[in-house]
Description:
Elements: E1 2-7, H1 13-22, E2 29-33, H2 40-55, E3 58-62, E4 77-81, H3 83-92, H4 101-115, E5 118-122, H5 135-154, E6 157-162, E7 165-170
Parallel strand pairs: 1-5, 1-6, 2-3, 2-4, 4-5
Antiparallel strand pairs: 6-7
Helix pairs in contact: 3-4, 3-5, 4-5
Amino acid sequence: xxxxxxxxxxxxxxxxxxxxxxxxxxxxxxxxxxxxxxxxxxxxxxxxxxxxxxxxxxxxxxxxxxxxxxxxxxxxxxxxxxxxxxxxxxxxxxxxxxxxxxxxxxxxxxxxxxxxxxxxxxxxxxxxxxxxxxxxxxxxxxxxxxxxxxxxxxxxxxxxxxxxxxxxxxxxxxx
Length: 175
């Protein structure tokens, strides 16, 4: 099963996505974390998150770019968090896909779907603030929007979390 979880900052989408994986039983749990550590505070935050995930029996894979290269153990349930970080990494990291960001990440999603029993992807709703941004940020928004649309099109379930409340946007197996 492929599930996409979206929502705004602080909406509860991450906690909901973790609950979804935890509810899938005792199969191996893989957490693909995409936050690139850029300072001491981010290193500390990443370590804190690793400990929290380990308590929930997640094995963590750090992935900043090159999602399609990840090898997942058989019969694993995978949580990918989050598309906004991965998109920025692919656009701006030296090893990133740059103008091929959308293709690289969509290929990565397909690679995960071929390997995982279940995949839950967390993404962000960043499109409703009405602010006009510089071109670089608009490109980022366009890339993230294209990937969100792609994932929603092939996902079995799409859920938006608003104030901690999951709202089903799409439900049922995609045929």
